[in-house]
Amino acid sequence: MLTREMSTKADGGLYFELYWGENLAEAWSYGPEREKVLAAPDEHAPLPLYGFTLPEEPFLMAERTPGGWRIHLPPKVQAERKARGASFAAVPSEQLVQDQGRTSLVLGEGMTLRLTEGQLSLVVQSSVVKERVGPLQWKDMGWLAIVALLFLSLPIGFLLAGPTPERAAESNARALQQAADKEAERRKAMGLDTPMRPITDTERAQQQTDGGPEVHVPASFRVR
Question: Does 90 fall in a domain?
Fold first, then answer.
């Protein structure tokens, strides 16, 4: 159980989650520029909250104070809170502020608040986005200029250091020589690199022409 009120940052946003039992039904996020959050059973309200008993509509659910967000509790809710990594526990009565019949408490840094009425639970916590994005500084402009200069220098460098006609001719000659070397290696592997030896007269005399058996044709035989 929390025994002291935790500090909170005044420049953060708020994040709401609405549960029906264990099921998440809706979620809303409010940025750090918002000063208050109004709730009502109306879909056009900043916080469209149905199923909770509200003393008036719209109901001031949260407001920003110099010490952080102050959460106003609907009259019939059961309020629980937990620190980061802890379990939910009832909010001690000394941590609740009573003012003109209203009950509220400060949402501490790292605190999660759960408001339950019936089957509905509204979980409230500080928004993840806590800082606005400021305008570009001079150093940011300097970095952008450096990046732009590097980006533009790439095509210029390519044009200046690109291939010249002499380099292109050398590259083509080198490619042709490599192709010729590969062709020579292929012919050597196939045994085609040695030229054929001509037949000598002795080898030609030893050759016999095979014309088949001798056939005698009669003189009266004609071929038409």
Answer: yes
